[in-house]
Amino acid sequence: MLFATSGGRLGLIAGGIEAGDEIWILPGLNVPVALRRVEDGSYSLVGVTYVHGIMHGEAVPDCKEVVHFDLI
Question: What angle do CA 59, 61, 67 make, to 5 degrees?
Fold first, then answer.
C-alpha cells in the first residue's frame, strides 16, 4: 500500500496503514516501522515500511532523544 507522511514523504507498506499511525526508526532495525498507538498508551506494530528519503539514516543524523514505550 502506498502512503504519504504528514511531512510529505512517500512510503510503501505491506498491509494496511491508517491515518494517525506513526513511522518510527528503532535501534537495531535497518528499516522504519509503522506503529499504531492503542488505548492504554502502548503501541502495536503495523509493519515494516519503505519511506523514500529516510532509508539511509537521513532522518536521524544526530538523534539524542530516547523514548521508552511498550510494544504489544
Answer: 70
Tens-digit pLDDT profile for residues 22-67: 999 887 888 899 999 998 888 999 999 999 988 877 776 656 677 7
Reported pTM: 0.80
Helix and strand totals (H; E) in the chain: 0, 5
- Dist. CA 46–CA 35, nearest whole Å: 5
User: Which cell numbers in the block locate residue 56?
Assistant: 539511509
Sign of the CA dihedral with 7 first, then 10, 12, and 18 last: positive
Question: Would you give the distance in Å from CA 34 to the centre of its chain?
Answer: 4
List the domain boundaries for the chain.
Answer: 1-72
